Amino acid sequence: MKALVVERNKLKNNLKIIKNIIKQDKNKPKIIAVIKGNGYGLGLIEYAQFLIDNGIDFLAVATVEEAIKLRENGIKQDILMMSSTAIKKDIEMLIENQIIITIGSKEAGEEVEKIAKDMNKKIRAHIKIDTGFGRYGFIYNEKEEMIETIKTWKHIQIEGTFSHLSIAFYGDGKETEEQFNRFMECIDELKKNDIETGMLHICNSSAFLRFPNMHLNAVRIGSAMLGRLSITNTWGFEKVGYLKSNVAEIKVVPSGYNIGYSNSYITKIKTKIAIVPCGYADGFNVKVDRDMFRKIDKLRYIVRDVKDSFKNKQIYVTINGEKCKVLGRLGMFHVSVDITEKDVKINDEVHFEVSPMFVDSNLTRDYE
Fold it and tell me: Which of these, 30, 31, 18, lies nearest to 235 by C-alpha position?
């Protein structure tokens, strides 16, 4: 049966590294564990519970659905919904489930204030400032409008203020430093106007590791927990998560025999193959890296993909500790693996290297 295996010992190792870095920081920033995207693929509820069991008491998500699901499954810790919204129904659901709301616009603030007043409640919230990401948040150079808006709030308790860095994983840090300075200028202006800013946080995983001076009161850690960094790993983080399946069928095909779609692979000799029920729909050989770089890098990816299509670049799986070649094109739910001269039997376990984020959310998450 297919499942994503989550190695607890590796997760604990990564969390230990993060905590050790924090110990060296005089400010001792709080860890906000980001568990968006089904817990980065590790399973929203299972991953949340693992983190709580290991001393994390503040979680963050990106959607209303994730926040509500955590509450429905008995998660009582603080949860920050990082995406600002002015949609009445969504705000009501977040308030009813005691989720900390993010407010990043005049419209969102007005709607939250109105609902809170009608409910006669004081709503916990973080302010989001857009320092150059171009998504949620009050625009950093429109400080007067931001201040005027916040001053009208009577039923909103500001517990934090944050921003989001766009390129902390790349370059010499100039753009990141510029965003950080914009953020701190906004904080100074808010404080001058007697506005409580609460917990300050701007660092994602990459910024946390690269820019200790930006840790502030809290850091938002997501990908580093999984050991899947967008920067060179010099800290000893371990990649967490692999997909497992089993050999379902074994057959021997003759020389000159086609394997898979498009007739892209023809055997050169008599070949023993294992059929394994796992493919790209399950998340195998799906990559996330190509949305993270400059135009020239994207062009390089295109050139590389074209070259790979001609080269039939080799993909491997692991059976009984041995690397085995995948033959032909990947299927949606199956692969054919060369096991010629290997001691492989029906039901032997097969390991696939994957990014957990792309593993079908319907598959079981086995914490081992």
Answer: 18
